[in-house]
Amino acid sequence: MDKINSYKDLIVWQRSIELVVAVYELTERYPREEIYGLTNQSRRAAVSIASNIAEGRYRGTKKDFTQFLRIAFGSGAELETQIAIAKKLLKTKNLNYLKVDSLLIEVMKMLNKMIGNLNS
Length: 120
Hints:
By secondary structure, the protein is an all-alpha fold. Helix content is about 75%, strand content about 0%. The chain has helices at about 10-25, 35-60, 60-85, 100-120.
């Protein structure tokens, strides 16, 4: 197995960056009045996932890394909730959520697995 030298080598970080891009592309289609609501909240939650993976990886201890992965996982749950709300709103319910949904599921599974592995 190749040694991971940087958070950039982590597949979960790479996918979380793809998720950020997908969330930005999706939220560009949200109505203008959501710019300070769901648009901003969703973008911040997505960015938080990738940022916490990166920060945790460079903290230096397994305990710190695990804690930051948990924070990233929590931000994923936030994003999941915001997407669920958007899917129910009249002006955003007919948008295509497939890419965001699949990336979010993948990232959440990876985070869950990593947290479990680091705890054992």
